Every structure is written in C-alpha cells, then in structure tokens.
Write a sequence for this structure.
C-alpha cells in the first residue's frame, strides 16, 4: 500500500510536517508571559515616571531655585517650550513656557507634543537594535540584503547606525526633475530614487572610513525596518517601543489620526509659523512628535532593560568616531561626551527641524536627565552649561559648553 504512494506525495507530506513543526516553534516563542514575568514587567513599568519631590532638603531646594532662575532668563531670551529635569528619579524641575501655536496663543502644557527632529534618531536606533536582538537583522548586513538595487556597495547596518556609511544627504541629492512632481516622498521613495537616478549622487566618503553625521543613514534604517517587518515604521515603533513603555503621547508625523494630532505644536522661526517641508514624511532621521514625559519613559525603560538587553545597549553607548581628538563621540543613535578611558560621561542627542529645537541630556553617574523641547527656534535650548553646573556641581563641567 505504502509503495503505491507517489514520491511527490511523500515530499508534500514531509513539507507539511516541517511547516507544522516550525509553526509550533513560533507559537511556543509567542506564548504568553508567566504570572511572574508579567509581575516583573508591571513593576518595572510602574517605575518609569519620575516622582514629585514633596519635602526637598536644603541642598535640593537650592538646586530648584537656581534652575527656576535659569529658565526665567531663558524665557526672557525667547525660549518657547517645555522642560523636564529629573535626578535620581525625582523631578527637580518641570515647566512650560509660551504657546503651541504663537498666532493662536494656545498655552503650552506638559501634554503638548513637539517634533523631536533629530532626537528621533535614538528611537530609530533602538528599533533597529531590537530587530538585531531578534535575529532579523545583523550589524554586518549590507543594505543590498534588503534593497538589492541600492547603488552604494559596502554599506553595512552598523555603519548606518554610527554615521560611518559615507552616504550623501538625501535632502540635497535629488533635483526637481528626479522628483517628478511627487509631493511629500516617504522613505521607500528615497530608496527608489537612489536606485534609479543617473548619475548616482556622489557619496561623501568610502563606507567605514570616517564619521560623517548624515540624515540619510537613519532614513535608510527606517526603510530597512519597514522591509523586514512588512509594516509601516510608525506601527513598528508603536508595537515595539511606545505601547510596551506606555508612551501614549508619541506618534510619527505620518500618523494623521485625531489621536495622533491632538496637542501637536507647530514650529516657528522669527515668530512666524513654518510651513510643512517637502521632506517632512521621510522619517527615522526625524518625524517623531512626543512630550517630555514620554521621552523620560523611553530613556528610563531603555536603561532598565525593557527594550533591549544590556549587552546590546552597551554597544549603542560605545564610542565609534575617533577621527578627531576631543571629548565628543557617537555610538549607535546616541551622542556622547567621553572620559579619557573612552567611557561615556554624558549621553545625549539634540535636534533641529523647521523651528523645533530639542535636547535629551543624561548623566548616568549622577542619574540626571535633562529634556528641553522648543518649538520656536532659539539657541538657548542647547545652552546647558549653567544647568549642568547646578546639577553636577561647579568646577565639574569645565569647558563642556562649546562641545555641546
């Protein structure tokens, strides 16, 4: 009887068994967390928000007073935005200055959402590192693994993360004739343009040769994430980062739902609202709207191991740009000020885009986090030296201001 079964039938049956085994394995991987695991995660989640200091001691009260004075002066200098300063899990200072839309005079609140500009890059880096942790992407993968027609060879994922790819900036790469009238391209459009345009835009340098901060790196990383997951980058961020950390006020600019648009501010320069930019819907290098509270949850959850494991996080905080002597450096999605033994003393990232100025500044040693979000271009957003001297103590900051 068995001899009469055709070979094709045997192979089909074998294939079915293999598929069932693989499916069973995948189901096993997706089994719900145990009660203990749920409890551990819930406890970690509950501790992501900073707490209010109810009875500050004399030293802390002095810090708060000095910080209040600093921001009164920043306000007089034109700062328009939100601030959150936390040390050892306690809120030293939190306030809002000005308006979400200067013309409409809608007062900013802690719920106001700001375009993070390049402060979006740490989120993109962590999203890609999660894919690496899950074995779906490798640091050594070339862009061609995901986009075979990409014209720049030798560019690997780790080079994109650390700005060592040598790729040209997409914002300046394409003339109007290449765009063919398409308004508001997305990441996949940019990848398609690079693949088709002749002549190919000239790269800045050979892959891996040197550090060169370039938005194209993070545009490509977001495109890779979309290709690997088969879903929009915003959905992947929401599923893998925002929802797990309870970041209910963070959305990509491409999300036009009423929920996502609620409490959004607009960018200004010289007191005037700036119109939407042609490249606003290219994301990964920019494009996130968020609040000071959600950004704190992101950093806190990240360092507590709720997104990626410690080994991979240490890789992100590893200095990777040593071409020029100095204390500044870049890891995977994070800038750093490093010590003489190449350890990160401060971890930070800033941003600027269409009137928005943003800054996340962290001192792991002092457990201090400074988040400043502005929506009316003002250099004081980045001027942190006085704040750092208050938090860390006079004489400990030295010549750091010019290096921010």
């Amino acid at each position: 009887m068995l001899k009469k079964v055709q070979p094709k039938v045997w192979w089909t049956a074998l294939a079915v068994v293999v598929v069932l085994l693989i499916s069973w394995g995948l189901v096993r991987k997706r089994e719900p967390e145990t009660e203990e695991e749920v409890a551990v995660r819930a406890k970690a989640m509950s501790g992501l928000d900073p707490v209010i200091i109810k009875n500050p001691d004399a030293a802390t009260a002095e810090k708060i007073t000095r910080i209040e004075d600093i921001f009164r002066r920043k306000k007089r200098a034109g700062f328009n935005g939100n601030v959150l300063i936390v040390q050892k899990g306690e809120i030293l200072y939190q306030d809002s200055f000005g308006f979400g839309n200067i013309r409409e005079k809608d007062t900013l609140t802690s719920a106001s959402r700001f375009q993070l500009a390049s402060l979006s890059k740490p989120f993109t880096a962590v999203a890609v590192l999660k894919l690496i942790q899950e074995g779906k992407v490798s640091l050594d993968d070339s862009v061609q693994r995901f986009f075979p027609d990409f014209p720049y060879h030798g560019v690997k994922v780790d080079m994109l993360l650390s700005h060592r790819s040598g790729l040209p900036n997409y914002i300046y790469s394409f003339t109007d004739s290449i765009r063919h009238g398409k308004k508001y391209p997305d990441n996949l459009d940019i990848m398609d343009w690079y693949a088709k345009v002749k002549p190919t835009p000239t790269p800045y340098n050979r892959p891996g040769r040197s550090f060169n901060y370039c938005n194209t790196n993070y545009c490509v990383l977001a495109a890779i994430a979309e290709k690997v997951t088969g879903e929009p980058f915003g959905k992947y961020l929401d599923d893998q980062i925002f929802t797990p950390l309870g970041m209910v006020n963070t959305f990509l600019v491409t999300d036009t739902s009423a929920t996502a648009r609620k409490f959004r501010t607009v960018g200004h320069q010289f007191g005037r609202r700036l119109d939407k930019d042609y490249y606003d819907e290219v994301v990964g290098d920019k494009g996130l709207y968020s609040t000071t509270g959600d950004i704190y949850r992101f950093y806190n959850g990240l360092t507590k191991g709720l997104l990626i494991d410690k080994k991979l996080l240490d890789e992100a905080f590893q200095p990777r740009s040593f071409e020029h002597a100095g204390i500044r450096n870049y890891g995977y999605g994070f800038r750093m000020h490093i010590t003489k033994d190449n350890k990160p003393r401060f971890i930070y990232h800033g941003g600027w885009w269409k009137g928005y100025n943003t800054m996340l500044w962290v001192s792991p040693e002092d457990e201090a986090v400074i988040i400043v979000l502005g929506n009316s271009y003002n250099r004081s957003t980045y001027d942190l030296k006085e704040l750092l001297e208050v938090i860390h103590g006079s004489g400990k900051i030295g010549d750091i201001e010019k290096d921010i």
User: Anything to note?
Assistant: The longest strand covers residues 344-353. The chain has 14 helices and 13 strands.
